[in-house]
Amino acid sequence: MEGLKGCTTHSPPPLHTSKLIRRTPLNRVFALVYTCAIIALLYHHALELSNSTTLATFLLSIFMFIADVVFAFMWATAQSFRMKPILREEFPENLEKVITKASDFPAIDVFICTADPYKEPPIGVVNTALSVLAYDYPTEKISVYISDDGGSQLTLFAFMEAAKFATHWLPFCRKKNVVERSPDVFFASDHPLCSETEEIKSMYYSMEAKVENILLIGKVEDQYIESEQQREAFNKWTDGFTRHDHPTVIQVLLERGKDKDITDHGMPNLIYVSREKSRTSFHNFKAGALNVLLRVSAIMTNAPIVLTQDCDMYSNDPQTARRALCYLSDPKIQSNLGYIQFPQRFYGLNKNDIYACELKRLFQINPIGMDGLSGPNYVGTGCFFSRRVFFGGPSTFVPPTTQELSPKAIVDKPIQSQPVLAMAHHVAGCNYEKETKWGSKWRTSTQVTFETQIDVKEILKRSIFCHPDRAAFYGDSPINLVDMLNQSKRWAIGLLEVGFSKHSPSTFGAQAMGPLMGLAYAHYAFWPLWSIPTTIYAFLPQLALLNGISIFPRVLDQWFLLYAFLFFGAYMQDFLDFFLAGGSVQNWWNDQRIWMVKGLSCLLFGLVEYLLKSLGISTQGFNLTSKVVDDEQRRRSGQGVFEFGVASPLFVPLTAAAIMNLVSFFWGVTEICMGRNWEGLFGQMFIAGFVTVNCWPVYDAMFLRSDKGRMHTKTTKTSSLLVFVLYIIASLTLRS
């Protein structure tokens, strides 16, 4: 990379370091012991199956065997994260000692995707864009692209206003050395009071009010149009212009070298892109939007570094780009480095994170383990890519169909020149990807951008997990249970599409990245399979208990000790991982509760929906998670109260399991009080009691609450009917 200083007398200062986590040897020993225990358990299941003499005992044995096989598989895949976890540290203060001058910093293209101004309010997207526009980075090296997949004039208007506000906000951040560079976050914090701050605060809230007023009206009226250039832009929204059928719209809102801030300092590029849509062309959701931005940015700026960012994930540290550069500018790893992934962190979580929206394992614990192998998975946001990874490795460069799209191409024309804009509109066309490899830059076969990273790892073999003490990005998280479950269901379907595709991590991934990385990616791809053992353990032992059948060894039996070791061993290891990563005991408890909730709801429905789609049966389409929440929901969330107010089918299996386990637990207590031998029932009663304790929020919502977040009556009735039907079927089967 240009700008690196030569050194003849001493080595340059370090830009980053790494070290192995100290408990790694213990993890490896425990994995060996636990594997032996799993083999013993499977042997026990084989004995039970061979000794089955009735249909009832055979069915019980085979279902419990299936559940434990899936448990064992998922546990085995999770061990890949514990074999070589590493911690990293960056030294961005040393960059100036390695890179000679500001002009030598590599340019960065930032991709921010939004799709619906009513579910993803434009003012939130504006805050995300402003936070990266204001990076502590040479402004002439930053280009921010806004992908508006909803094709909304409301979003364009919001960014026209943001462009004007940015000319005040960026110099204010530099002068005051502001750290929280999302205006909304900064003004909500305990910021120093002065006339200048109050002036720009007033300016921001005036912009916010104007944007929200436009949102209420539903269109940009003439009184808000300030110039002929703006009028020309909004004239593109004709009567035939819809979100599903419209031509490409590309609007340059800020141009470096041309636009200046109020201190006469140059501004970064800010470009609005709404790709062409047609009802006759499949648009591939977010993956398709990213593919278009990759092409449009190549024509207009072609920066060697690409940052992908969710619309609600604002930058929380102005040094983030420099931290990424600590790796991207290191010549020792540069040639094989594909991307730098930062963890997703979330604001607005209630004290104990009742919905486990922090996703600590997915975004913090597991990536540390993958980083010691060949690098973390790409999570769809907060990731700095080297542009060349989309065109092959150092020795396997795959040239694009058009030379202008090559990562080696030099853009030497102004971005608003007619040839550049014409070509940018052309490559944003909805039919451009047909019969080309552009659909595989970001994969189009799934709703999550998961396969991309497997191709990157196959080409370059290395990515980096950057996890600084100060969160690099903060995003919005669902504070509504049904929104969280719908979001997870959407992920589950997309992951299964990858898991059972030709790019499955268990086959293609293992060959491309090695067996341990293949297992790590398989853990994610087959994540929805958790629903199988969770559902079996939530219903089958309890149904057997209600019918007087014991399915676990007696307490004094040696096989019972094996079950106890497997249960408590897995839970204690999970707790240690969580606690040592900075989690609290209460947060861990809530996290494992939500794991059970997801297994009985979104993962189960995601698995069923994937199977239906595989059979060609129509299912529900892609849905965005709403970022709009009413004040009452926010208040209940802040108090740590679950939200069950919607009559969603996602709640039915969960509520049925809560009823089933409560009834079976007290039935078992009654049996023991009547003289039944407790040793044979203890295993089933323990599981029923464990599920019952975890389901307290369900009972609270069913029987004790009177607010709008209580369990819907329809859900309770449907769940009760399901329990009754399951009991009748089990009784007829197990007693036959």
TrEMBL record:
Gene Ontology MF terms in the entry: cellulose synthase (UDP-forming) activity
Chief location of this protein within or outside the cell: membrane
UniProt binding sites for Mn(2+): 286, 310
Gene Ontology BP, a term: cellulose biosynthetic process
Organism: Morella rubra (Chinese bayberry)
UniProt cross-references to SUPFAM superfamilies, sorted A to Z: Nucleotide-diphospho-sugar transferases
Keywords: Cell wall biogenesis/degradation, Glycosyltransferase, Membrane, Transferase, Transmembrane, Transmembrane helix
GO cellular component, one term: membrane
Name of the protein this chain belongs to: Cellulose synthase-like protein G3
Top-level division of the source organism's lineage: Eukaryota
Topology in the lipid bilayer: Multi-pass membrane protein
One Pfam family from the record: Cellulose_synt
Localization annotation: Endomembrane system
Transmembrane segments: 29-46, 58-78, 521-540, 560-582, 594-612, 650-669, 681-699, 719-735
PANTHER family documented for this protein: X-BOX TRANSCRIPTION FACTOR-RELATED
Binding annotation for UDP-alpha-D-glucose: 119-120, 149
